[in-house]
């Protein structure tokens, strides 16, 4: 045909199709204008137009479909072969069928015999398989042993349905091993003798370089002369490549085989297999033969758990199952079952020899394990299997895991997602849900799982992280995804530096493969921001989170969960930087959106509530903070559980709020409770636990239990320095507090040293205007004050006050405490007028922020009263002292501050010459304080001195 | 981009400018991978459910490149190479099968001997290949459309990109070519040795 002609034909073709069906014939007639061949051409083409089944799918699919169909047809046919010859064998009947092969009884003419003909189902052989098959049949031909079912011939035959590979084997009349033992009622000695024969056969093959790799009772027949015959020698290796086995066999059958697989075999490293793996299998078979059950119970266990058991769990000793097995036989079996293959029998022959020695009552070569080794084994047996599983499976990485999951997928033919995506999903799901979920503290504290504060999880993670390298070279998205998951788990465990490493690698990959604006990439950026925040690298955190947030707003919209995540974390960063107003705005917005879009019980909503509450706390809005925290806690208790780390954290925050309000009595038991739970659930070195420790110590400090407080702070500080680093915010806070306690105990030198050091760290790590830095500065100034170094104290106080007013607000409890301390300095210095001014300001502020019925406010009232007193303004001091005394008498009648109030009132009255009223109060006050001297902080001993003075 | 990818990209550009030798080199680069993947694909019990044929080409792409080729055009040309290669693989297989049917003694190591040849015209790839070659003699573009769509599994859009024609034209070519091929393939067999 000529191209031009074809064009013409084509044009007519398409034109005709545009014409309505009924008028088509006449249209063609007209268009062809008498050219019969042209008309014929067009009509014949139209006849084939749009036949649905033709080329309906890409060639591959069409072919594979046809192939699958014919396989089914063939399988149906083969089940009852009419007459069949395969090669030169005449099929008699079907003996059995497996996933990939069928076994027939067949007759051969030359030589004349009956054989077992194992055929691989057509279509199940692959090029790879067949190539191996050719290669292996030589080796198999060399195996000639009474204990091994002989292979006569291996070949391929054209059965009319295409090529079929087959091999002809010795046909054995007998039954499977366990059945034989049962029906013939073999006793222990008989079983052992049988086993020895099996070992002989296996050893024969080993000598000729053939490892079975799939020994199991199903592969061992015993004929009517009592001779065991091992089947499928080497065949397992030839006909079912490892990937095929896991894919075609399916999960259930895999687990069946699993029971006999050695620890190194389940670890998936093919290079680790040798004849000793067969020895192990023999050990399992022997155990089963003697005990009547398998050494481990892996029935119905999920695959990773089963693998863990094989690798970790010590089998119960035979003697524990049946007393008659005590002694040497126990040892023999144990040696065959050693996890460590170097401790096993080196060969099947050695095993057979020891069995025979035992039967002959001769000493065996195997020695029971030494005491030290026993101890180790004992410890191993009782290890938490969960973590054991983690250590194992993660090391497997891509190889076995992926193919196993492919088997599961193949079974549940579901969505037609891209293969690669499914792989990634599957691997990730596996890592996250089955494996690392057990590591994540969050899930550990759920109602059904037991926590594992063991650090084995850390080991598992480390190995996982190391094991990824190189396994996914061509699948960067998969690798990135896994690294992201592992990074997240490190974060859950509080190992922020490691988390950062993983996330950074993931980011690099995502950036490269998906681009900088891809949601996945952006999510990692914000996760890195969060991790930086948790390491108190606030500037970095702010940069990362702002960056991510801007892009996410643009790419995903302002209400996307990822965007909210960034917002809430950025809010937390602002809070940490002391930029409360900004934090407040952002967190309020986040909370509103989150509640609306994600729901009031969503984790992000709860986290936003928590952050916002903290922010309120810093701003002095304590009632709001408390309310919000209680709300959050209630939801968290209900949705996450009382011991979930998030719930505990919120509880800690609530107690901290009480602490800030000087409500120590309410705060202390809550802290204790939270600390106990966190230690149990998260471990004593987790970031959250340390935070609570500090808080509890602070409460103790406030309650005057200085020594207790000192111990707790010191302990915490040591851990924090080690785990979090000296510049972490928590470490700094702890340093501040410990130093304050030293000061309260009168240990000036220590206090000064520690506080100076902490201050410089704070300036460096948090910035010179950060609230924590200011606190440190204030405390240092306090130390100088109590040492009389007013010249050094004053500039510090001035600074803290100025910055505090500016950054925290004049009403902030922190700023007010600076005021108070400043006033105290002037008081000590003797500058009573200044003391009065500042004390008055502090009092007014506290009345406004916390109300009058508050110990801290009353303490300020006392300070002001003292300032008045010192200037002889007795009339002014009296009402304040009275107010304070009334408060303490009503609420806290036993604290030393109450007696201070007594003293102040007494002095005020005495100063107005009302000695009769005044003196008893002075006496009561002084004696009261004296009795409580140990609870009075050193710097406050000043008041005791004044009280004594007035008494004179 | 690593050197191997750079090399392939260069070849793709050369080919899209008409250098046929570049195509041969490209095909040999992807052949082994595609072959192995196709084999795996064929061995599935229910093909198409867990691994779609079109995914093979994408997977081949990913195996060779661990980062995106800079331009989508390059990607699409790569797919075209895969289509050509896939055609060769399938036809080779089919030929192997046919060799066997004639009773040769060669121990065949080829995979799909079992296609029972139940008379689906589209599965006799040798015949398809022949017919396509014939079509190419009269209208090269149509042959290419079929190759890309049927053997490569490319979408109409991707095909249009490779051939630098409109999607509409692709669809028209496709429709016509299928009719033409089916007619050829259902004629009385006159295939010789």
Order of helices and strands of chain B: HHHHHHHH
Number of strands of chain B: 0
Amount of helix of chain B:
55-70%
Largest interface: A-B, 70 and 68 residues
Mean pLDDT across the residues of chain A is 78
Name the poorly predicted regions of chain A: 234-256, 370-424, 432-455
How can the largest sheet of chain A be summarized? 6 strands, antiparallel
Count of alpha and pi helical runs of chain A: 44
Distance between the first and last residues' Cα of chain A: 132 Å
Task: Give a short summary of the structure.
With 952 residues, chain A is mainly alpha-helical.
Write structural notes for this entry.
The complex is a heterodimer of chains A (952) and B (193). By secondary structure, chain A is mainly alpha-helical. In chain A, 68% of the residues lie in helices and 6% in strands. Chain A has 44 helices and 9 strands. In chain A, the strands form 2 sheets. Chain A has a 6-stranded antiparallel β-sheet with strand order 1-2-3-4-6-5, covered by helices on one side. In chain A, strands 7-8-9 form a 3-stranded antiparallel β-sheet. In chain A, a hairpin with a 4-residue loop joins strand 8 and strand 9. In chain A, helix 17 runs antiparallel to helix 19. The longest helix of chain A has 21 residues. Chain A is elongated, with a radius of gyration of 41 Å. About 11% of the residues of chain A have low confidence. Chain B has one domain. Chain B has 193 residues and is mostly helical. The radius of gyration of chain B is 17 Å and the shape is globular. The longest helix of chain B has 30 residues. Chain B contains 8 helices and no strands. Helices cover 68% and strands 0% of the residues of chain B. Chains A and B meet through helix 1, helix 3, helix 4, helix 5 and strand 5 of A and helix 2, helix 3, helix 4, helix 5 and helix 6 of B.
């Amino acid at each position: 045909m000529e191209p031009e002609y074809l064009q013409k034909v084509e044009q007519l073709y398409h034109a005709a199709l545009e014409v309505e069906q009924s008028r088509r014939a006449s249209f063609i007639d007209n268009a062809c204008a008498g050219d019969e061949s042209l008309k014929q051409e067009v009509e014949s083409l139209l006849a084939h137009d749009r036949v649905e089944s033709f080329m309906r799918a890409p060639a591959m699919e069409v072919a594979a479909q046809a192939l699958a169909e014919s396989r089914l047809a063939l399988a149906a046919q083969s089940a009852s072969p009419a007459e069949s010859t395969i090669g030169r064998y005449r099929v008699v009947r079907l003996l059995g069928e497996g996933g990939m092969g069928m076994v027939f009884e067949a007759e051969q003419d030359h030589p004349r015999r009956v054989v077992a003909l194992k055929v691989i189902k057509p279509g199940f052989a692959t090029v790879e398989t067949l190539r191996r098959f050719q290669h292996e049949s030589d080796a198999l031909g060399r195996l000639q042993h009474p204990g091994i079912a002989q292979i006569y011939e291996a070949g391929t035959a054209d059965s009319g349905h295409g090529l079929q590979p087959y091999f002809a084997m010795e046909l054995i009349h007998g039954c499977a091993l366990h059945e034989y033992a049962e029906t013939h009622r073999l006793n222990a000695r008989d079983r052992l003798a049988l086993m020895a024969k099996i070992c002989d056969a296996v050893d024969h093959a080993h000598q000729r370089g053939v490892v079975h790799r799939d020994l199991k009772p199903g592969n061992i027949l015993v004929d009517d002369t009592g001779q065991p015959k091992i089947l499928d020698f080497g065949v397992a290796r030839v006909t079912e490549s490892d990937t095929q086995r896991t894919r075609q066999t399916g999960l259930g059958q895999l687990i069946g085989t699993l029971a006999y697989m050695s620890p190194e075999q389940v670890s998936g490293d093919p290079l680790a297999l040798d004849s000793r793996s067969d020895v192990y299998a023999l050990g399992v078979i022997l155990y089963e033969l003697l005990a009547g059950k398998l050494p481990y119970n892996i029935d119905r266990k999920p695959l990773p758990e089963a693998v863990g058991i094989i690798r970790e769990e010590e089998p119960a000793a035979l003697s524990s199952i049946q007393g008659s097995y005590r002694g040497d036989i126990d040892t023999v079996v144990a040696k065959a079952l050693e996890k460590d293959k170097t401790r096993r029998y080196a060969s099947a022959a050695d095993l057979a020899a020891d069995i025979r020695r035992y039967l002959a009552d001769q000493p065996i070569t195997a020695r029971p394990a030494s005491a030290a080794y026993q101890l180790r084994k004992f410890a191993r047996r009782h290890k938490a299997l969960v973590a054991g599983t983690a250590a194992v499976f993660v090391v497997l990485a891509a190889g076995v895991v992926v193919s196993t999951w492919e088997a599961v997928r193949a079974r549940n033919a579901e969505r037609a997602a891209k293969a690669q995506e499914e792989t990634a999903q599957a691997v990730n799901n596996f890592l996250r849900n089955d494996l690392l979920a057990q590591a994540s503290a969050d899930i550990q504290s759920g109602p059904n799982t037991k926590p594992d504060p063991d650090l084995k999880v850390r080991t598992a993670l480390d190995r996982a992280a190391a094991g990824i390298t190189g396994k996914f070279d061509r699948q960067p998205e998969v690798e990135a995804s896994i690294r992201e998951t592992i990074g997240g788990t490190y974060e859950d465990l509080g190992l922020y530096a490691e988390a950062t490493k993983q996330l950074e690698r993931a980011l690099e990959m995502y950036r490269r493969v998906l681009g900088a604006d891809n949601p996945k990439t952006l999510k990692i950026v914000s996760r890195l921001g969060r991790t930086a925040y948790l390491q108190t690298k606030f500037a970095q955190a702010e940069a990362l989170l702002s960056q991510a947030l801007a892009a996410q707003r643009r790419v995903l919209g302002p209400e996307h969960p990822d965007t909210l995540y960034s917002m809430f974390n950025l809010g937390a960063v602002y809070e940490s930087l002391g930029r409360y107003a900004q934090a407040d705005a952002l967190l309020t917005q986040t909370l509103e959106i989150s509640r609306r879009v994600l729901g009031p019980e969503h984790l992000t909503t709860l986290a936003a509530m928590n952050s916002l509450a903290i922010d309120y706390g810093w701003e002095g809005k304590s009632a709001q903070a408390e309310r919000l925290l209680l709300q959050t806690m209630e939801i968290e208790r209900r949705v996450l559980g009382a011991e979930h780390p998030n719930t505990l954290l919120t509880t800690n925050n609530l107690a901290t709020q009480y602490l800030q309000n000087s409500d120590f009595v309410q705060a202390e038991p809550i802290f204790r409770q939270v600390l106990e739970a966190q230690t149990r659930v998260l471990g004593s070195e987790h970031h959250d636990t340390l935070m609570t420790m500090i808080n509890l110590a602070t409460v103790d400090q406030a309650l005057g239990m200085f020594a207790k407080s000192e111990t707790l702070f010191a302990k915490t500080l040591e851990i924090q320095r080690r785990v979090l680093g000296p510049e972490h915010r928590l470490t700094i806070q702890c340093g501040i507090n410990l130093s304050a306690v030293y000061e309260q105990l009168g240990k000036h030198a220590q206090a000064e040293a520690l506080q100076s050091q902490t201050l410089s760290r704070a300036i460096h790590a948090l910035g010179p205007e950060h609230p924590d830095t200011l606190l440190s500065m204030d405390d240092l100034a306090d130390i100088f004050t109590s040492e009389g170094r007013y010249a050094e104290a004053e500039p510090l106080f001035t600074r803290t006050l100025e910055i505090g007013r500016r950054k925290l607000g004049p009403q902030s409890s922190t700023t007010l405490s600076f005021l108070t301390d400043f006033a105290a300095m002037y008081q000590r210095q003797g500058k009573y007028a200044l003391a009065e001014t500042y004390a008055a300001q502090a009092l007014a502020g506290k009345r406004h922020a916390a109300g009058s019925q508050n110990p801290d406010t009353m303490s300020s009232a006392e300070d002001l009263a003292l300032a008045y007193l010192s200037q002889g303004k007795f009339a002014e001091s009296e009402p304040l002292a009275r107010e304070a005394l009334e408060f303490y008498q009503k609420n806290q009648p036993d604290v030393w501050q109450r007696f201070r109030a007594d003293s102040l009132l007494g002095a005020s009255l005495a100063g107005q010459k009302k000695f009769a009223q005044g003196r008893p109060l002075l006496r009561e006050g002084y004696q009261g304080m004296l009795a409580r001297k140990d609870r009075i902080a050193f710097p406050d001993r000043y008041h005791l001195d004044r009280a004594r003075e007035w008494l004179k | 981009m690593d050197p191997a990818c750079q090399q392939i990209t260069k070849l793709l550009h050369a080919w899209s400018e008409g250098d046929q030798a570049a195509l041969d080199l490209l095909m040999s680069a992807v052949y082994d991978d595609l072959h192995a993947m196709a084999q795996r694909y064929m061995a599935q019990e229910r093909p198409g459910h867990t691994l779609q044929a079109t995914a093979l080409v994408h997977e081949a792409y990913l195996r060779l490149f661990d980062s995106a080729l800079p331009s989508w055009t390059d990607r699409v040309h790569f797919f075209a190479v895969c289509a050509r290669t896939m055609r060769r693989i399938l036809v080779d297989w089919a030929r192997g099968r046919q060799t066997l049917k004639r009773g040769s003694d060669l121990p065949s190591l080829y995979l799909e001997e079992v296609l029972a040849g139940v008379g689906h015209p589209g599965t006799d790839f040798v015949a398809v290949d022949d017919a396509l070659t014939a079509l190419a003699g009269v209208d090269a573009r149509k042959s290419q459309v079929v190759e890309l769509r049927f053997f490569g599994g490319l979408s109409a859009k991707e095909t249009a990109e490779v051939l630098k024609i409109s999607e509409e034209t692709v669809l028209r070519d496709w429709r016509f070519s299928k009719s033409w091929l089916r007619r050829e393939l259902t004629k009385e067999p006159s295939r010789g040795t």
